[in-house]
Amino acid sequence: MSERIWDQFLTERDKRVFAKSGFGARAGFGKRPALLIIDVSYAFCDEKPLPIEESIKRWHTSCGEDAWEAIAHIRRLIDKCHGKGVPVIYTTGTRREDAWDSGSWNWKDSRWTEEGADVYQTELDGNQIVAKIAPGAKDIVVLKRKPSGFFGTDLISFLNLLQCDSVLVTGTTTSGCVRATVIDAFSYNYRVAVAEDACFDRSQASHAINLCDMHAKYADVVKTDEILEHIDGLPAGQFELPRGARSA
User: Fold this and answer.
1) Disulfide-capable partner of 191 in 30, 59, 83, 160 (CB 3.0 to 4.6 Å)?
2) What is the pLDDT at residue 33?
3) Rounded to an integer, what distance in angstroms lies between the CA atom of residue 230 and that of residue 238?
4) Is the pLDDT of residue 178 over 70?
5) How, if at all, do strands 88-93 and 166-172 pair?
6) What are the residue ranges spanned by the domains of the chain?
7) 30-95+123-232 maps to CATH 3.40.50.850
8) 19-51 residue pLDDT tens
9) Who's near 125: CB < 8 A, 6+ residues apart?
10) C-beta of residue 76 within 8 angstroms of C-beta of residue 164
């Protein structure tokens, strides 16, 4: 078996347990997938590739250069989906101007409440999706306040409307919003594939171990190239997508 990104973090006992327990079986792709792009916004990516320890001085939730490596793969997936007429659905955060609705987010992040903390001055909204992969006219954007793309949103109703049986998941952070979305998709009995190289996290260890855990129990974690090959084999135009123009 080829080495996986998480192997370097596993103990020898972990490897023996995974080998004998039956976890990590391939579930397989579905026939009617949607591409989910989780939270690839400036707050998590910065406006340009920078080493993470520089980038977090500007956007304290940034994942640095790793974000931009993943964005290149996400762009490939978007283009392939557009060419086949496969739904592309983005999530990003939303907040009141006074951030009252941040709620429990405030409890685990000291920089929300630091007195006199440096604030990076920019006209960009941190929740704005990065321009390199900005939504097209026929794409769908789901606004959320909590980690999962499903929690308190219209995502599942859109997937039902599109008659999807599966989701292809990309984005950030692997250990947070990606994982939460994957677990909810699994719980709703969708087949789930995660594009390993199209996801990213600010912690290298968290990225790898959460990919490991998702692959063991909830999703097939595969490379972008394998997902592209799967999309290539789908019938073109099988979805009734948004028209991308104002209704009469």
Assistant:
1) 30
2) 98
3) 15
4) yes
5) unpaired
6) 30-95+123-232
7) yes
8) 899 999 999 999 999 999 999 999 999 999 999
9) 42
10) no
